[in-house]
């Protein structure tokens, strides 16, 4: 009997250690993948310096782009009010979201429609842990290819995890962030933001006109 109790006690200890170690491991994996994504971006997209501010309406008229497709670059999402600075990868599979936050395949070109991004609230660094703190008017910045897109938070709300309307484009230039609730995976926290400014950027090594 005493032997059985000792074995049970050891199992409880190992179970407790596993419960503690698992989130730490997943957090470390998230940080590792994010570091790798940033390192990869250094070679593909050097540091940029702002050149000029562009009215989104003018840019929409002048640029020859496919409005139904998101440019196939990894991006960088910054939200100053919650100290978020994270690489955005292409895709929202479990493997993709280990590497950072991810663009939904349904995302459209930023000047024309809805750019939708998913991220974990907990686990793998929990990049979207604090997005419930965002309020109307808070700034969100998405750097994608040669442009930096500035958004202003419009609202946040909760919806069912099968509500795909939130990531569809309705013709408005907007950003949508999605993540799970802390208490359930069946519902999603949604943050909507409107595009207010586009900054064209170029490599620092080029002369600014």
Structure, described:
The protein has 209 residues and is an alpha+beta fold. Helices cover 26% and strands 34% of the residues. The chain has a domain at 75-200: Sortase, Chain: A (Beta Barrel), CATH 2.40.260.10. The protein has helices at residues 2-44, 56-62, 94-98; strands at 48-54, 75-79, 84-90, 101-103, 114-118, 139-144, 147-160, 174-180, 187-203. Strands 2-3-4-5-8-9-7-6 form an 8-stranded mixed barrel. The model is unreliable at 14-22, 43-62 and 203-209 (pLDDT under 50).
Distance between the ends: 83 Å
**Could you tell me the mean pLDDT?**
78
CATH superfamily of the domain at 75-200: Sortase
Any idea what the shape is?
A: globular
Instruction: Please give the CATH class of the domain at 75-200.
Output: Mainly Beta
Secondary structure: helix percent: 25-40%
Radius of gyration: 20 Å
CATH names the topology of the domain at 75-200 as Sortase, Chain: A
Topology as H/E string?
HEHEEHEEEEEE
Identify the CATH architecture of the domain at 75-200. Beta Barrel
Number of strands: 9
Give the strand line-up of the largest sheet: 2-3-4-5-8-9-7-6
Question: Which regions are unreliable across 5 or more consecutive residues at pLDDT < 50?
Answer: 14-22, 43-62, 203-209
- Output the structural class: alpha+beta
Biggest pleated-sheet summary: 8 strands, mixed, barrel
Counted by DSSP, the helix tally is 3
Beta-strand fraction estimate: 25-35%
């Amino acid at each position: 009997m005493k032997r059985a109790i000792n074995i049970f006690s050891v199992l409880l200890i190992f179970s407790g250690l596993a419960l503690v170690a698992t989130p730490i491991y997943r957090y470390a994996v998230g940080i590792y993948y994010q570091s790798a994504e940033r390192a990869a971006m250094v070679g593909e997209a050097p540091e940029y310096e702002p050149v000029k501010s562009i009215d989104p309406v003018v840019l929409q008229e002048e640029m020859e782009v496919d409005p139904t497709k998101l440019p196939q670059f990894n991006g960088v999402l910054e939200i100053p009010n919650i100290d978020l600075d994270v690489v955005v990868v292409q895709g929202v599979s479990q493997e993709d979201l280990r590497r950072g936050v991810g663009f939904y395949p349904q995302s459209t070109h930023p000047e024309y429609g809805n750019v939708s991004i998913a991220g974990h609230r907990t686990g793998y660094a929990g990049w979207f842990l604090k997005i419930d703190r965002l309020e109307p008017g808070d700034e969100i910045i998405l750097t994608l290819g040669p442009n930096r897109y500035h958004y202003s938070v419009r609202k946040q709300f909760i919806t069912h995890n099968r509500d795909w309307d939130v990531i569809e484009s309705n013709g408005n230039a907007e950003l949508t962030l999605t993540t799970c609730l802390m208490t359930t995976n069946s519902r999603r926290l949604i943050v909507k933001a409107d595009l207010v400014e586009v900054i064209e950027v170029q490599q620092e090594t080029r002369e600014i006109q």
